[in-house]
Design goal:
Layout: E1 6-13, E2 33-39, E3 45-48, H1 49-55, H2 57-67, H3 78-87, E4 104-108, E5 117-118, E6 125-126, E7 138-142, E8 145-149, H4 151-157, H5 159-168, H6 175-184, E9 200-208, E10 228-234, E11 242-246, H7 247-252, H8 258-266, H9 274-278, H10 297-307, H11 318-322
Antiparallel strand pairs: 1-2, 2-3, 4-7, 5-6, 7-8, 9-10, 10-11
Helix pairs in contact: 1-2, 1-3, 2-3, 4-5, 5-6, 8-10
Bound molecules: zinc ion (3 copies).
């Protein structure tokens, strides 16, 4: 089994003059199609289309499968699909469709960036016509990057985050935008809490809690001795001790992406017994309906767990056995503001 750290592979025309392919180190010519691979952690990478498809064939296989179905939208150009036909090995399992759907994890008001961009929601330029609903650009962050929205569009997509802007009432947001959010948000919308996960960085570690002393940063409840927890380096503060999370709490958070669980399972401590992963059936979110043609997440995670030789895992980094890709350590990747 071959694994890659990418949550998506996009194919688009290169507008960069001196971009090099990360696989073969040869320049990608401006004006030609290129592939952009977006990892769950770390920086995105540019490839020639065929080089990118070799790195993440599952995402190419997903486009090939869906291009043959009548009702599934495919976001690759014909040229990309033609290359995929040639380079995706037969029998490659397609990536789950839900991997392309990453939630908005934070919003901010761009203070110094005067660029106009198209709003991802309505397609019109932002900031648009002057006025509280359209005359401002809102920056939104997700695992796969940054986007721009009108206030009236972001309030529909991420009402809880907009309610948090109202609640926190920070000077970094213009009074006009805060007043607009306050006016249009129904009272029933709860502000989304700030995620403690966003203040951590690096590859999270799956481990059995050696004691029952540490509390989960999401729910403040102590993590029981022997229970599986996620440990992740804090990015701020003086002490370099990790922060700890219940796996179930991470799964309920806005930062959740199944690919992150793949990473931690691949790098799991060798002493972790399989039955503790099997027990995740109770904490994993239900499989999204669009993933109707892939095995359930728990099954996929157990297959990854089984693919790592447990005894050898101690000497060698298990992820490097499985893939030529490197899981890159992020610095600031998850910090949204
Ligand atoms: Zn290349
Ligand atoms: Zn819009
Ligand atoms: Zn918790």
């Amino acid at each position: 089994m071959r694994w890659n750290p990418y949550i998506d592979l996009r194919v688009e025309i290169s507008n960069a003059v001196r971009a090099k392919c990360k696989a073969c180190d040869v320049e990608i010519q401006k004006g030609t199609y290129r592939a952009e691979a977006i990892p769950i952690i770390g920086k995105r990478a540019l490839f020639h289309v065929d080089c990118g498809i070799k790195r993440a064939p599952d995402h190419a296989a997903r486009r090939l499968v869906d291009s043959k179905l009548p009702d599934k939208p495919v976001d690759w150009p014909e040229e990309g699909l033609a290359v995929a036909e040639r380079y995706v090995p037969e029998g490659t399992p397609p990536a789950p469709r839900s991997y392309l759907r990453t939630p908005i994890t934070g919003i901010s008001y761009p203070q110094t960036d005067p660029r106009t961009q198209d709003c991802v929601f309505c397609g019109l330029v932002t900031p648009g016509e002057p006025g509280p609903g359209t005359g401002h650009a809102i920056k939104a962050f997700s695992l796969d990057g940054e986007r721009r929205f009108h206030p009236q569009c972001i309030v529909r997509l991420a009402p809880g985050l907009c309610a948090r802007v109202v609640q926190e009432n920070s000077d970094r947001w213009p009074a006009e935008v805060k007043a607009f959010f306050r006016a249009v948000l129904p009272d029933t919308i709860e502000p989304t809490p700030r995620s403690p996960w966003a203040d951590t960085g690096g590859v999270p570690k799956l481990e059995m809690a050696p004691s029952g002393r540490a509390a989960c940063r999401y729910c403040d409840v102590k993590i029981k001795k022997g229970e599986l927890r996620l440990a992740r380096e804090k990015m701020y503060g003086m002490r370099r001790s990790p922060a700890y999370f219940h796996v179930g709490c991470y799964c309920k958070s806005d930062d959740y992406h199944p690919k992150m669980l793949e990473v931690v399972v691949l790098k799991a401590d060798p002493e972790i017994p399989r039955h503790l992963i099997e027990a995740w059936g109770e904490v994993l979110p239900p499989d999204p309906p669009e993933d109707d043609d892939v095995p359930p997440l728990l099954e996929r995670l157990l297959a990854l767990f089984d693919s790592v030789p447990r005894e050898e895992a101690e000497q060698e980094d298990p992820t490097s056995n499985l893939t030529e890709n490197v899981v890159e350590f992020p610095r600031g990747f998850f910090s949204s503001e």
